Inverse folding.
């Protein structure tokens, strides 16, 4: 489980940055403006975590239990809520209702993991969904160019085996891109520039956390 600090943000799109030697670096621009909605402590809840909220939401569209929680934190209702498990020392630095600034969590050169919801592609065939090569396109083959081929055996066991790639719903699932470096932080605009692409469409909600598989450049939580 990833227990490094992170923020909730919105994917704005992609851009590029030129380094000093002229190298072009493709970057994804993420707007991050998370607020502390609540806390979890080991003494009371058995673990330490921050409850963060992102994006404004109308009061009439918010349930009464959540609305009471937002009023207790003295902040406007938030559209997206998520718990971030992290160290107790890091949690102690923030109060309920306080904004989590990106410079308090990340630094340039740090590696992060970005999770988002991939774009839904509806009902798709095996070539698009599982990257199958398709059938032969010669020797009199008809209407099998994009088929997946045989899906089972004849006599034994006489059924379709589990795990065979089939057509079906493609996309619209949580996808995580691991170990992406932070190229630039724009504190005034609350923008994080992460190298490479990030799952999801524009204006999609993403979470950015410290990388779990590469410790180089991680910001200390203590």
């Amino acid at each position: 489980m990833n227990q490094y600090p992170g923020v909730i943000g919105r994917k704005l799109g992609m851009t590029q940055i030129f380094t000093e030697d002229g190298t072009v670096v493709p970057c994804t621009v993420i707007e991050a403006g998370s607020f502390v909605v609540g806390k979890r402590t080991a003494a009371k809840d058995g673990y330490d975590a921050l409850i963060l909220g992102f994006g404004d939401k109308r009061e009439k569209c918010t349930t009464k239990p959540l609305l009471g929680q937002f009023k207790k934190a003295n902040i406007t209702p938030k559209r997206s809520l998520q718990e971030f498990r992290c160290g107790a020392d890091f949690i102690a630095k923030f109060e309920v209702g306080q904004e989590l600034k990106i410079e308090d969590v990340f630094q340039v050169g740090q590696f992060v993991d970005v999770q988002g919801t991939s774009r839904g592609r509806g009902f798709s065939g095996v070539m698009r969904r599982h990257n199958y090569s398709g059938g032969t396109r010669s020797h009199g083959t008809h209407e099998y160019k994009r088929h997946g081929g045989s899906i089972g055996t004849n006599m034994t066991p006489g059924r379709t085996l589990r795990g065979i790639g089939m057509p079906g719903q493609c996309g619209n699932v949580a996808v995580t891109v691991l170990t992406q470096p932070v190229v630039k932080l724009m504190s005034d605009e609350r923008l994080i520039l992460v190298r490479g692409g990030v799952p999801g469409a524009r204006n999609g909600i993403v979470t950015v956390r410290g990388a779990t598989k590469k410790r180089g450049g991680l910001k200390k939580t203590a």
